[in-house]
Amino acid sequence: MDALAGASNISFSTERYGDVGRGRIRNAQVVLLKPSTFMNLSGNAVRYWAQAENIPVDRILVCVDDVALPFGAIRLKPSGSDAGHNGLKNIAAMLGTQAYPRLRFGIGNNYPRGCQIDYVLGSFSPDEETEIGARIDVAVEAARAFCLEGIDRAMCRYNNA
Q: pLDDT tens-digit profile of 43-86?
């Protein structure tokens, strides 16, 4: 969200349930949210701001890290299961549907059994550090494409990028 906000000249302010940024990406009005809730309870923030800003569920793009994808891989989907991601599970429960778009950013799964939390909350390897900026730039462009062109076109352009 920080990279998307920076690329779009949007700043955040601390509001209910998190940091919120409002602005425009070309002709699209956007609301960016960085929930301050625990990840497993992020659905509270998403539901609150979707209702407060009158955002239809199909115009919400949830961006998450994903250990099921190789490092730097980007996948956009219009809906789907939570695939074991507790944040996505809570968002679906709070929105009452799994039919919300998401951008999954791969962080890989190079961790020993039982050490997933340490891996997810840890640092990137030196090799990953050299690549992360470019991969985040692609994710930012994918999110911008979602805002301007919709999920189908964004998926066509960025799911293999």
A: 999 999 999 999 999 999 999 988 889 999 999 999 999 888 88
Q: Quote the CA–CA distance of 19 and 33 in Å, as a whole number.
A: 6
This prediction has a pTM of 0.90
pLDDT of residue 61: 98
Angle, CA of 133, 135 and 89, to the nearest 5°:
115
- Classify residue 49 by its DSSP letter: H
User: Please, what are the domains in the chain?
Assistant: 2-158 (3.40.50.1470)
Nearest C-alpha neighbor of 31 from the set 43, 19, 23: 23
Written as six digits, the tokens of 24 are 């425009």
Cα–Cα–Cα angle for 117, 67, 160, nearest 5°? 160
CB under 8 Å to 142, separation ≥6 — which residues?
Answer: 74, 76, 103, 154, 157, 158, 161
Whose structure tokens read 């911008």?
144
